[in-house]
Amino acid sequence: MLKARAAVQNLPTYDPPLAGRDGLRLDFNENTVGCSARVIARLQSMTAEEVARYPEREAVEVLVAEHLCICRDELLLTNGVDEGIHLLCETFLEPGDEALIVVPTFSMYEISAAATGARTIRVLADDDFRFPLDKVLLSITQRTRLIAIANPNNPTGAVVEGRAIESICAAAPHAAVLVDEAYYHFYGQTVLGAWRERPNLFVARTFSKAYGLAGLRIGVLTGACPAMAMVRKVSSPYNLNSVALACLPTALADDEHVSNYVAEVRIGRERLQEELRAWAIEYWPSQGNFVLFRGGELNQPFIRAMRQRGILVRDRSADPGCAGCVRITIGVAEQTERLFAALHESFDEIGLKQPEAV
Amino acid sequence: MLKARAAVQNLPTYDPPLAGRDGLRLDFNENTVGCSARVIARLQSMTAEEVARYPEREAVEVLVAEHLCICRDELLLTNGVDEGIHLLCETFLEPGDEALIVVPTFSMYEISAAATGARTIRVLADDDFRFPLDKVLLSITQRTRLIAIANPNNPTGAVVEGRAIESICAAAPHAAVLVDEAYYHFYGQTVLGAWRERPNLFVARTFSKAYGLAGLRIGVLTGACPAMAMVRKVSSPYNLNSVALACLPTALADDEHVSNYVAEVRIGRERLQEELRAWAIEYWPSQGNFVLFRGGELNQPFIRAMRQRGILVRDRSADPGCAGCVRITIGVAEQTERLFAALHESFDEIGLKQPEAV
């Protein structure tokens, strides 16, 4: 009888929403206004001939490498960051190995690691979701072959300093250290290029967030040339679609669209955090395009009340340390207005009172 | 020091053309006229909001399943057939296992199998590239966990009967048997649905060939529900891009575009085979949208001569049993005219003479 590998049999089925997300979608950390109009113009100029052809990623990889000021061999375009994570796991992990992650964090690290048969070692974040550097260093063993760090972290918005990342790379030279900078634009700090000192460092970026291209599936995995050569061996040559490849140069050329959007999100993030303070709601300062806060027992009624008002937010209460927590993606100014209106109505509906101003 | 898994270290680097395929491209078995105009119209109607959103494949999977007259749980949309192959290898193969393929064939089976650390057992096709059923049956062992069969086969165009496939499934119930029907439309016969009798059978289809959507990366992997549930565990929820998902229903609705194209290709295939007979060139009758023939020592000069005339054809001389062979993709009538003109000029240039008519 046909049986999957033991590691696959033991995998849970991951079942995220794949349909029916109607409303103002503040649940997936997407760009809430969409990509640059110039990108859409390029997309709309696609011909039947371009679509019929197998994707040719070479020239576009050169452009992206130039944009990031790195060599082409230090970079691989991936079908979203998801594929980059998957490729790293496939390249470095086997049964008996350990993959180290700091929880709560993005779920795909653990899913892709588990598929290889490796054991996931989960290190719980320190108080207030601060990065637990000491515990991470103590958890490194000879079997550690992957350490995945989202920076800023999702869903907490917490960050880790470049120096801490370097010390992890130094302490685990036999492990691939992935720094997932999907939310880089909303933070502004990076370890890109640090693999020249630390050849086991990989950095991932995405065009799904600040650039508003989640639908096109464009991730970037970067690292030292020898390390990337290993990853490239397990990657498929036609992983990126032609529309993504056609649109990417245009997206890179319209820096202004991205920087304007990012600026608005940062203001919205500050405003939401102020608002949560005013309501005495526990939240965690975020460097992403989202804020995590604790609704406690009122979490589920709050999420329902928001949905009734046409706003989707993401329940994170199943994440470690996140009981009763919800994550809200930040959009632009008028969306923040709409969010606040719904927030106030929902708080009212669920019986949450604003404390007296002191 | 960072090291890839042993299986990855041993992998060769696969380096197909990823740029610079200028001319009439008869080298990749793509659709030579492109997709339906209605698909392009749908593509051009994509909005920034649609592009910003994570892909939602559920509703489209329902439609494709209906189109194929199977249940939704029997199907997974994949990022090209390449991803389907990769997922099957990942689900079923581990070091020590055996993957059985009949060579020459499509290269990705061996590449994806090797990445898992499994051993590839290559069974050489019989004379004239006929399917070596007896040798395949004899090569099945307790460690066989994957058997990959392209039907029609690429690059030979040979086919294998449904009954032979069933006997393989029956002889290796512990192995996943993949029948890759990428060229189904040019052949017309299928084992789709036969997994209801043979629960270890998987069938792959693609929208890259007859439908002209290679750039959008749309494969379909089908199989029995329990088997597909295992595969789904290792798959990424956002593997298909939103443009592909938006265009797919339109592509399915325009059956006429596909059937007209397929009819023209079949006529062109017959004409090219006649022409090769007239020139006394060894070729193999094909059920794909391509024909393989042996140029022998004149193969390289022929490929160069064709390129000088703006026509790309694919050298297959490195494939087992294919020394001196070239594969030409068939297009529509006026492309066949252009092909014939270049063919005659090239034959003339390399000094190939047409035998006297008898």
Characterization of the model:
The structure is a homodimer of 358-residue chains. With 358 residues, chain A is α/β, with parallel strands linked by helices. The first copy, chain A, folds into two domains: 6-29 and 256-350, Aspartate Aminotransferase, domain 1, CATH 3.90.1150; 38-253, 3-Layer(aba) Sandwich (Aspartate Aminotransferase, domain 2). Chain A has helices at residues 6-9, 37-44, 48-52, 58-68, 80-92, 108-115, 133-139, 162-171, 225-234, 242-253, 255-278, 299-308, 333-350; strands spanning 24-25, 75-78, 98-103, 119-124, 144-150, 176-180, 201-206, 219-223, 283-284, 290-294, 311-312, 314-315, 325-329. In chain A, the strands form three sheets. Chain A has a seven-stranded mixed β-sheet, sandwiched between helices. In chain A, strand 5, helix 8 (162-171) and strand 6 (176-180) form a beta-alpha-beta unit. In chain A, helix 4 runs parallel beside helix 10 (242-253). The first copy, chain A, is globular. The model of chain A has no long low-confidence stretch (mean pLDDT 96).
